[in-house]
Amino acid sequence: MSRPHALISGASIAGPALAFWLSRYGWDTTVVERAPEFRTGGQNIDIRGAAREVLRRAGLEDAVREGTTGELGTRFLGSNGVTVAEFPASKSDTESATAELEILRGDLSRIFVDAGEGHTEYLYGDRITALNDTGTEVIVSFENAADRSFDLVVAADGIGSSTRRLIVEDGVAIRSIGMEMTYLTIPRTDSDTDWWRWYNEPGGLAVTLRPDRHGTTRAVLTSIIYNPSQDTRAGGERRTPQQQKEHLRSQFRDVGWEAPRVLAALDDATDMYFESIGQVRAETWSKGRSVLLGDSAWCASPVSGMGTSLSIVGAYVLAGELASHTDHRDAFAGYERIMRPYVETAQQLPPGVPRVANPRSRIGLEAFRLGLRIAASRPAKKMGAQLFSPPADKIDLPNYGHLERAAR
Ligand SMILES: Cc1cc2nc3c(=O)[nH]c(=O)nc-3n(C[C@H](O)[C@H](O)[C@H](O)COP(=O)(O)OP(=O)(O)OC[C@H]3O[C@@H](n4cnc5c(N)ncnc54)[C@H](O)[C@@H]3O)c2cc1C
Predict the structure, then answer these.
(1) What is the pLDDT of residue 229?
(2) What's the confidence (pLDDT) of residue 405?
């Protein structure tokens, strides 16, 4: 009998993680990625709770631990750039903004891609343009490659997934959270430290700088969107990368601390990644022989602290259910039954997020800083930890170990 073959769209976290697990269960896998080559961008992402257990089962925990950024913790800065509150990195993965297992998104993606080497075919610079589900196979058309047929198709191509639109036309809502984030890598300077430094300015603006292990610094410019016409996620006008740079220059023109340095680095940034923050709610995650995974299915947003953990766990569960059932419909049903409650819990953001951490007025900002000082003080530390406690363990993780093939 020939090996089943899955086509996965998206080579970030969910896609390569799924390919890794499926190949362990005896599947052939092809991953198609829109970008012309492997994407290195992004900054620290957390791996928490059940996702850590999945890495352990994958035998990849040590590789991830070796790739962590070594961040010491989070420092919130006052208007003069001096620390007003400090939260050291935690040994637990739920007690601090800096989790014990924090790795750059690109480094984690690379670990999954490398771990699947020899088992997975990667097609860069292409994308799916049409799906024809005959009931026994899916005939796939690509923008560049010739048509091919697969047993299953998986959309793991992020919040804006165009493959999702080819699978489930209705019942998908993308809720804007009213915030934009632009990520870029900038040269490291002597003023940089191994702390995550977080600077707010009234008007809902923030600049953060984080260390990495490549001798550079990861910067993020965050802004709350008060004017709905500027909300690209909620239907506002989309911007090209060049327009986004101009937009940031005007938005952050009068912002202090290291903002001028980050703005000056925009032109040379080769990995700028811009995201209008939102959450995906899809009534169903599959249709016929195609299924959604990761941000494409359920994006909880970066402010949930759970985006990558959900993708790692979701890939593990989807692969395990496919290996456990001969009929893909049973597998998709099992996947959804196990993942949906976990996803829904992760999507519940604490009240006031994200505006509470990005105040609009000067008085609001002073109140935020006072709150941080109290939260960082010894007696309140435990309470403060609650602020940083995503529901990473709220899943009864199945164990599919018995399904692994000894020889891949
Ligand atoms: C470059 C980059 C940087 C990021 N940086 C951060 C960060 O710093 N912090 C954070 O919290 N989250 C970041 N994210 C998002 C984070 O990776 C996800 O929220 C989470 O890990 C879930 O991953 P995912 O694999 O489901 O989706 P994503 O990580 O969004 O990956 C989707 C992948 O699909 C590709 N793609 C999109 N459309 C198509 C298409 N039509 N055909 C084929 N491929 C397609 C994209 O290029 C991307 O590689 C980043 C994502 C990317 C792509």
Answers:
(1) 77
(2) 60
**What residue owns the CA closest to ligand 1's atom 27?**
158
> What pLDDT digit, counting tens, does each position of 312-330 carry?
999 999 999 999 999 999 9
Dist CA 329 CA 322 (whole Å): 9
Q: What's the fold here for domain 5-69+90-174+280-351+390-399? A: FAD/NAD(P)-binding domain (3.50.50)
Mutate to test the pocket of ligand 1, among 127, 157, 276, 285 (most ligand atoms within 8 A of CB): 157
Q: What is the pLDDT, as a whole number, of residue 386?
A: 53
The pLDDT tens digits of the residues spanning 362-407 come to: 999 999 999 999 888 866 565 555 555 677 788 889 999 888 764 3
Q: Return the pLDDT at 351.
A: 82
In the chain, what are the domain boundaries? 5-69+90-174+280-351+390-399
Residues with CB under 6 A from ligand 1: 9-15, 32-35, 39, 41-43, 45, 105, 127, 156-158, 162-163, 183, 273, 294-295, 302, 307-308, 311
Q: ∠ CA 356-353-97 to the nearest 5 degrees?
A: 90
> Which DSSP state fits 373?
H
Q: Which residues pair with 286 in a beta bridge?
A: 291
From 302, 322, 313, 297, select the one nearest 222 (Cα to Cα): 302
